[in-house]
Amino acid sequence: MTDSSALRHEATVRTIAFVQYPGLTPLDIVGPLQVFSMLSHLVPGYDTVVVGERIEPMATDTPLSLVPSHTFETMPDPYALIVPGGAVPTLAAMADEKLLDRLRTAAVRSEIVGSVCTGSLLLAAAGLLEGRRANSHWMYRSLLARFGAIPVAERWVQDGNVITAAGVSAGIDMALHLVGELAGQDIARKVQLFIEYDPKPPFGPIDWEAADPGQYTSRRRESLQQALANYPALLERLTS
Amino acid sequence: MTDSSALRHEATVRTIAFVQYPGLTPLDIVGPLQVFSMLSHLVPGYDTVVVGERIEPMATDTPLSLVPSHTFETMPDPYALIVPGGAVPTLAAMADEKLLDRLRTAAVRSEIVGSVCTGSLLLAAAGLLEGRRANSHWMYRSLLARFGAIPVAERWVQDGNVITAAGVSAGIDMALHLVGELAGQDIARKVQLFIEYDPKPPFGPIDWEAADPGQYTSRRRESLQQALANYPALLERLTS
Would you tell me how many other CB atoms lie within 10 Å of the CB of residue B12? Predict the structure, then answer.
């Protein structure tokens, strides 16, 4: 950076905005938030916000409730907008036109649009993934095609300015990748060191041969029926 | 399980309790909480709670605030008590006698006592790690010896009924290990599948040779001084 004034510095701060809505999976949001928050502590020029409809506690799929820091009206224009996922409440949010409008409006103001887990179904339902290569939680990945996206089974998938991660914990890997793109690999490695992200899954990696998504088709259908009972057209589109 | 009545079933529910206090690192708590919460969704007999001094929003080291589900008075006797860590606010909490008393009292009621990251410094300050092998965030690991614990550089360390994880993200690995101990490896693998914990750090594992903790000694000292300015005896004990 050059000898920028405080004013110039403020103008060049990149804000990473995480979208919060009721019932989400907290690790989807907290994983990448912790990565970018550490980035903002280590080097100047980055900031994080959590944006929701109101600044009040919202339930998650755990006993913990979360409170966002900003509303959609008060958040600064984000450099990156990240949408976390969840189970039935996220599937239900595919029919929440108010939230989808918030996403469309915020996406226009963002350089990068991203998601974790089934958050990509919200981007897809908002029409933001048409023709894009994208991923989601493995159980829901194939549904992306119903919205015109191209499902890809990678830990994270970048297509133009859209980046989508696999399920839940994949948001950490995606965020570290983005930090590398934004601030360079040395900084990304420092973030990794400070959050001591040196994973040692006690039973090794996932055995994808044993974890056949096909056996979960009925479970997925039940979750969709529970989430979208009042939206028969969308339900039909996703279960036919 | 035998043909237990509802009453008997309720009596055998194992509650995993996570301690919340102001300023903590949210990934420390949300990582293992998401693991145990998934366990409770997949099989009967498990429950999770988040316990704090009051059921109201508390700040974290990110823009997100968290709200616990229970107070120390209202939480059920936990099977496991897990204490997350953080940076300066956690170091300051080493001098919070009220919180340390809460931990001592809750630990007596628990079968297993655990921590993530610098949460082990709170267990240590509460006198719960004397003579125990234990770990913490790499930057603070050696301080455990000042409280009579034996620092061990492993992803997680189990010594009797005490289990302590390395920094921040290590809580996920520790929690999956505990799920394996409690419910068996097949269930632990299923939890891992559902949170899609198949980590792919984009720049590989941490390079511990390059990440010499020695170079962070002054940074650690500054954080301790900031946290414990009003507790000179404890500060002296940890920085001399």
Answer: 12
- Domains of chain B, by residue range, sit at 6-199
Say if residues A192 and A201 touch (Cβ distance below 8 Å).
no
pLDDT in tens, B32-72: 999 999 999 999 999 999 999 999 999 999 999 999 999 99
pTM here? 0.94
Spatial distance between the Cα atoms of A19 and A168, rounded to a whole number of angstroms: 15
The average confidence (pLDDT) of chain B is: 94
Q: Look at residue B10 and tell me whether its pLDDT is greater than 60.
A: no
∠ Cα B173 B177 B182 (to 5°) = 145
Determine whether the interchain pair A196/B117 forms a contact, defined as Cβ–Cβ distance below 8 Å. yes
Min distance A25 CA to chain B CA atoms (Å) = 8
Among residues B30, B14, B12, the alpha carbon closest in space to that of B175 is found at B30
Q: Which one-letter DSSP state was computed for residue B80?
A: E
Other Cβ atoms within 10 Å of B201 Cβ, number: 19
User: Hey, is the C-beta of A89 within 8 angstroms of any chain B C-beta?
Assistant: no
Q: Which residues are within 8 A (CB) of B155 and not within 5 positions of it... i.e. 6 or more apart?
A: A198, A200, B135, B165, B166, B170, B173, B174
Report the CATH superfamily, name and number, of domain B6-199.
Answer: Class I glutamine amidotransferase (GATase) domain (3.40.50.880)
CA distance to A77, A103, A162, per residue, from A110 (Å): 7, 10, 10
CATH number of A6-196: 3.40.50.880
Dihedrals φ, ψ of B75, to 5°? -75, 145
Neighbours of A38 (CB within 10 A): 28
CA dihedral B174, B175, B180, B181 (to 10 degrees): 80
Whether residue B196 and residue A67 make contact (CB cut-off 8 A), yes or no, is no
- Return all residues near B13 (Cβ < 8 A) that are at least 6 apart: B45, B46, B47, B76
Contacts of A203 in chain B (CB under 8 A): 176, 180, 185, 188-189, 192
